[in-house]
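[job 4471] stage=fold_predict status=RUNNING
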Amino acid sequence: MARKKRKVTERYLDTKSKLLVQEKSTTTLENATQIAIENHLQNAAIAIKPLEQINNSSSEKSKDSATVSLETYHSLQQQLEKKERQLEKIQEQAKEQEETLNSLQKKVDKKDKQIKELQEQTEEQTKIHQTLQKKVEKRDKQIAEKIDDYKALEKQNEKKDREILELQAQITEQSKLTQTLQLRSRDQNQKITFLQDRANQQTKTNQTLQQQLETRKNEIERLKAQLEKQANHLEEQTKNCQTLQQQLSEQENSYLHLKQEHQKQIAGHNSLDAIANIHLNKWRKNYFSN
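[job 4471] inference complete, writing structure tokens
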């Protein structure tokens, strides 16, 4: 007996539509996927209704409806594969964005290194200033101790005052530079924080996309399992039909055999009746003749 083709029923399509509606998410990609699948399922249900009515009256039209249902299944399979390819493209884009973030992170690290170098230079200049300040204090003590050399020391003091003024000017410039570096460091820290937040957001987006992809894969596996289960059920029904046909043939053969035996028994009984009648007639003839 030829194997019957699988046929998608209205109940199956309704169940499939409900499951797909429950799996809807807020993302644009999944909404588009769900709308496309629902529309396709509705169109398939509309196309299958008249085909199932025709199936009740004609076996050939039933095969046509089964063919339409298989075409619907293949169309759904192709749409799901298309969505998987779109998800793979999105993952590639996410990977490119991650590489861009890594490049920006390297630039930020380079800026941090430059800031550290400037800070080290500032500390060295501060040490120099402290050393000069100590020298000035030491010379002031020498001026106090040596009154006789006051004039000479006064000249030296004036000279040192000029040096101090120059150093103070340098310190002022150094302070401005330090403030500028601090502002730049603050800007760099803000940029780093922004980039870190953006990287965290991108990571969350990637995780969401990965979860959606896994959900899609699980849904496809579940659909495949259901279709395989239906196919196995149809195969079992086909085998049962074949078994019933074999049993019916055996019963028909047994009936014919019993019928033949019965006919033989009837023929035997008829022959015995004929022989008995002959003997009875002979006995009657002999009896009445005597």
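[job 4471] summary: The chain has four helices and no strands.
[job 4471] exit 0
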